[in-house]
Description:
The protein is α+β, with helices and mostly antiparallel strands. Helices cover 34% and strands 18% of the residues. Strand 2 and strand 3 form a beta hairpin. The longest helix is centred in the first third of the chain and has 13 residues. The protein is elongated and about 55 Å long.
Amino acid sequence: MDTYELDEVDHGILYYLQQDARNSTSTEMAEELDITASTVRNRLARLEDEGVIEKYVPQIDYERAGFQLRVLFTCTAPDQPENFGQDVLEQEGVVAVRELLAGTENLHVEAVGTDTDHLTEIADSLREMGLEIVRSDVLKSQLHQPFNHFGTSVGDE
Length: 157
């Protein structure tokens, strides 16, 4: 996998998208970065084409959406095939999969459900895939922030 060389403009665009991609217009980013809106649009297209920006996804409050329980399953996955994480992600109720470079407890699976019966069904489907569930923890909250290496001072200059 080749890396894409980011410059300061790319860093600024990525920083603002991490703040609020839905409401960050190319015009507003251009003003903050002291460049033209067309430059922002061209850079966005290039960042998408190069795979730096993979997709834009909303941050959902699952509890408000009727899914009262969010659980993090810590699993051991023996000898995973190439796309195993994607296969796990396709299971009903699973919203995130993190593959770790660990021998055991090498997979974190985040799932949402309406009640404990629903989560039991999700856990059963994971076990049927060959996962050993080592632990399950109910998630209380999750906080996010922009990766600061892209530069909090980009628009402050």
